[in-house]
């Protein structure tokens, strides 16, 4: 097992978002591993990006984004869902990558229980779904993902560049057109 270190996350956000495809997201709860291969991400590129939480500057909610790379930015949305982002680039530059979907690897029955026995194909195919399945909540906001404790990302599978596609991000209708149309969502091409 090779846990991704801070230097991985310190790269440009678009590179981090694309490079996370094929990596393994691991959550350890009471000795039980819940994990999956990352198959979809979205990049959020700082105050200049009108879709980014940091677009209007630093707040209590987004302050983790201004910290060091490799930390979890977990926030609550729509009054019911947690979403996991990973801070990228240099400290002080508020960029992050949203983890949008994973392909389950370990802890499947526990994930199904946490997701109330939903269909396997819908278990972790969305950012809120994967957080529910892996028990990721606000208590992990500001978590050091490079420590190898509780929640981390590790090397797993090399996905060839030709199998990764880029598309516009989802659910950002409020953003400027150039940011709505930016190809900053990365996913594994369906076969």
CATH architectural designation: Roll
What is the N-to-C succession of helices and strands?
HHEEEEEHHEEHE
Q: In CATH, what is the class? A: Alpha Beta
| Helical proportion, percent range | 10-25%
CATH topology value: 3-methyladenine DNA Glycosylase, Chain A
Number of strands: 8
Largest sheet: 8 strands, antiparallel
**Whole-number total of structural domains:** 1
Number of helices: 5
Radius of gyration: 15 Å
Give the N-terminus to C-terminus distance in angstroms: 28 Å
Q: Assess the beta-strand content as a share of residues.
A: 25-35%
List low-confidence stretches. none
Per CATH, the superfamily is Methylpurine-DNA glycosylase (MPG)
Cα shape: globular
Q: Provide the structure class.
A: alpha+beta
In round numbers, the mean pLDDT is: 95
In words, what does this structure look like?
There is one protein chain. With 191 residues, the protein is of the alpha+beta class. It has one domain: 3-methyladenine DNA Glycosylase, Chain A, CATH 3.10.300. Helices cover 16% and strands 30% of the residues.
SSE diagram, text form:
Blueprint: H1 6-9, H2 13-19, E1 24-29, E2 32-45, E3 72-77, E4 81-88, E5 95-106, H3 108-114, H4 127-134, E6 151-154, E7 164-167, H5 177-181, E8 185-188
Antiparallel strand pairs: 1-2, 1-6, 2-5, 2-8, 3-4, 4-5, 7-8
What descriptive keywords fit this protein?
191 residues, alpha+beta, 3-methyladenine DNA Glycosylase, Chain A, eight-stranded antiparallel beta sheet, 16% helix, 30% strand, globular
Summarize the structure.
By secondary structure, the protein is of the alpha+beta class. It has five helices and eight strands, in the order ααβββββααββαβ.
């Amino acid at each position: 097992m090779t846990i991704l270190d801070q230097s991985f996350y310190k790269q440009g956000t678009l590179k981090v978002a694309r490079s996370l495809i094929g990596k393994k997201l691991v959550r350890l709860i009471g000795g039980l591993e819940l994990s999956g291969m990352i198959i979809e991400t979205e990049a959020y590129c700082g105050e200049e990006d009108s879709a980014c939480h940091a677009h209007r500057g630093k707040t209590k909610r987004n302050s983790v984004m201004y910290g060091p790379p490799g930390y979890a930015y977990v926030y609550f949305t729509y009054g019911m869902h947690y979403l996991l982002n990973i801070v990228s680039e240099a400290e002080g530059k508020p960029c992050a990558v949203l983890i949008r979907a994973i392909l389950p690897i370990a802890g499947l029955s526990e994930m199904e229980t946490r997701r109330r026995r939903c269909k396997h194909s819908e278990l972790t195919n969305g950012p809120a779904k994967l957080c529910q399945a892996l028990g990721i909540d606000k208590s992990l906001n500001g978590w050091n993902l490079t420590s190898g404790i509780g929640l981390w990302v590790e090397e797993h599978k090399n996905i060839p560049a030709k199998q990764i596609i880029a598309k516009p991000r989802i659910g950002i209708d409020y953003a400027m057109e150039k940011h709505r149309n930016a190809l900053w969502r990365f996913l594994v091409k369906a076969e």
